[in-house]
Structures are given as structure tokens and as C-alpha cells.
Please model this.
Amino acid sequence: MKLAAGAFLAGATSRLLPASIPLRFFGAAVASHVLAWLALLAGSGTLPRFAGGLGWTLAALHLVTLGVLAMTAIGASLQLLPVATRQPVRSTRWTAAVFWLYAPGVAAVALGMGLAHPVLLATGAAAVIVALAIFGVLLALNLAGARGMLTVVAHGWCALASLVVVLLTALSLAFTYVGMPLIERGGALALHVAFAAYGFMGMLALGLSYILIPMFALSAAPPERQALASGGLAALALVLAGVAAFGVAAAPLRVVAVLAAAAAVALHLRLMSASLKSGMRRELGRSFRLVRIAWALLALSLAAALAVALDAPFDGMPTLFGITLVAGWLLTFVLGILQRIVPFLASMHKPPGKAPPRTPSSLTADRPLAVHFWCHLAALALLALAVVVDSVWLARLAALAGAAGAVAFGAFFVILLRRMRRPPEPRTVRKAPVV
Model:
């Protein structure tokens, strides 16, 4: 059986975007990471019992979801899917246009939420929706022309369908603040949360994992039939959650949706565990410790979702669910993968001159990543504790720890860019002593 890495990398350099395009998405994600924790610090007074509404807590949430998670997903999928599906990049102009619409749109959305400025929010939301619509077309063209990678393609189509739901509900929620909702707010919010986190981001994360995990572990691709079964169960869970959002047998359908999602996750994690155990590269470092923690938090988010569906008698349960889902699973997973994928993609581009490309390890600064690792875990623990004991001060400490970790992660990214632009230092050859 072929190693997934070999199949993925065959002829990859001919299907690469210019380095500046994916790196600008990743750089914007790194900057949004810092800003999200600072926005959370500004809104920490409302965090422990956050129940929606304009303000800096909502801005922090969307700086994570739109600024870090979706920004990374767009950059990674625009680069990785053409390589995985063995077809050329269709348009660098439209890819660049997505960024120049999307990044200012995210900034306007965050400011509109934080400053409680509905017109700015609606303007930013319109730019974000147009950018994501262009991205959706590019993604659809790529998936339609795919050769092979059926598992990844199936997850991609599900993510794309979820994106359509996310765009419609985002438009409705944004225009609610100017008195023009498209869908009733409660149903729109339920659809938006499920299809943004578990649908769009979740299906992309699960699908791209079937490329990235075997590639970094140097293992065979997981069995296609089982991977498709996991994706099918996840899609079923989304459909059930969508029907429940419209008030049709809401409570029982949400419970069944969580159970279907749990079965999908259990099968997916079994396949990922088998890939890691059978891989030729066993020690994958700190980044994959984050990935494993994220997987555990994914399972925990489903338990929290079940508690919300069953109306658990704890006022902070919806907030705890959101923290476990967004900051716990998705953000932790993306940060773990990002510190692997950025050096990997950077190493595939030659530095100026005749020097050979840099290796991923030579581009990676380990010390900032070690600081980020512990700060991020401390922030997650403090966030959860702040909600459990209803403490604003613990929420502030969590935001400070998260911001420190985000700055350290930013230092890793800046160092990588500097190292990428210069050739590797020549090895010094020791001369044998003259006898």
C-alpha cells in the first residue's frame, strides 16, 4: 500500500500557489489569534454567563471563528486541495481577491460587534459573505474536477453545503441588528452554530485530516470505506440538527444528532489512531500533543452539546459548550496543525538564489511554540473554571494567558518568514588534524 505522503507529494510543486498567498492567510490568522484574546480581555466581564448580544465577547468569538479558524481553512484548502486532487491551481487572482475582501470584512465585523455599531457590522458581514461565496465557487470547481481522494472530496462537498447554510444564517443574524432578519433569530442561531462549527469547519478538519495525519506520520491512508462511513454519520448529524433548529421534534432530534455525531467521531478517531500507530514517524512532537488534546475536547464538546440539548440545570452550560467546541477543539486543532503545515509549505518554496530549499525543522523556532503550548492550555483551563465558578477575574487571567501564548505563536511565524527569505547556513566541515 502506498504511503499517503508519497501519493500526496507526487508532482506537488507544479500545483503550488505563490508562497505569498497561503502565507498571507496564515499571517492574518496569527494576527487574529492575538486580537481575539485581547478582545476577550476587554469583554471578560460578560464571559462567564455570556448569552449573546453585541460587545467585545462576541467580537472575540468571531475573531476566532472567522479570523483564525476560517482564515486558516481557506488558506490551507486553497493550497492543499489542488495538490491532493491532482489538478492545477485555477486562478491566483481570484484566490488573492478572496483575501483582500475577507480580511477587511472580518476586521469590520469584529469592530462592529465590539463597538455595537450595526451598520459597520452589516457592511463587514456583506464583505465576508461575498469573499466566502467566491471561495465556495473555487472550492466547488476544485471538488468537481477532483481525481481520487474520494474521502476528502466527500467531506469537502459536505463542508461546502454547510458553508451555504452558514452564509444565509450569518446574513440573517447580521441584518437582525438593523431590523431586517431573513430567518427567525433562534432558528438562525442554532443553524449557524451547528453548521459553522461542526459543518463547515468540522467537515474540513475531518476531511483534511485524512491527508495531513498520514502525511506527517508517514503512514498509509485510512481505509476509504470506513472514512466515508464516518463522514456519512457526521452528515446525518448535521441534517438532524438542521431539522431540529426549525422546531420539529427539537429535543429528541438534537439528542439523536449528538449520538450520530459521537459515532462519527469515534470512528474517525479510531482511524486517526491507527494511522499514528502504524506510521514510520512515531515522535511527532508538541504539535501533535495539541492535536490529541483537541480530539479529546471534540468528544467533550459532544457531551456538552448533549447536556445543552437535555437542558442541564446549569446556567453556564451553553457558554461551556461554546468554549469546549470553539477554543477547545477547533482552535487547539488548528494551532497544532498550523505549526506543522506552515513550515512544511514554506519548505516547498525555494529561497532566493541557487540555494536548496529549507527543511521544515530548520524553519521552525521551537522555544516560542513551547511557550504557546503551556499558555494555551492554561488559558483553556482558566476559561472553563471561570464559567464553572462564575468568575470575571479568572476570565481575565485566561485572556491574559491566551494573549501571551498568541504573541509567542506570532513570534514563531515571524521567525519562520525571516528564515524562509534567506538560504540555509552552510555546514562547517571539520578538517582532520594534521599528523
About this structure: The longest helix spans residues 185-217. The domain at 4-420 is CATH 1.20.210.10 (Cytochrome C Oxidase; Chain A). The chain has a mean pLDDT of 86.
